[in-house]
Design goal:
104 residues; mainly alpha; Bbp19-like_phage; Bbp19-like phage domain-containing protein
């Protein structure tokens, strides 16, 4: 398998920006991509307040995770109503699973 690079995707700088945006959108704006985005949002806690007793190192790590997620969001540029739906999907990812009777 040959991994694609941004330099191979476009020769000029302005073409690179458009190419990388298209690549992000094609990956994340699909059914599976939306599921991954919701999982990443829940995993990095982007829509949750950090714990009050978080150490400076853990806080920096969390901030880095959130920054990477924010980068993805900035590349796909979804409208506010879709962002609200993504936030709700991420919230649902953090709730316990009550479908399994063994949890009770």
């Amino acid at each position: 398998m040959v991994w694609h690079s941004l330099k191979r995707a476009a020769r000029r700088r302005k073409d690179r920006a458009a190419a990388i945006e298209r690549a992000y959108r094609s990956v994340f704006l699909s059914g599976e991509g939306e599921t991954v985005l919701a999982d990443l949002a829940a995993e990095c806690g982007i829509y949750q307040a950090p714990p009050a007793d978080l150490s400076p190192r853990a806080s920096g790590y969390l901030d880095g995770r959130k920054a990477l997620y924010a980068r993805i969001l900035s590349m796909i540029r979804i409208p506010p109503e879709e962002h609200a739906a993504l936030q709700e999907a991420a919230r649902l990812e953090t709730l316990p699973d009550f479908d399994n009777d063994e949890d009770f």
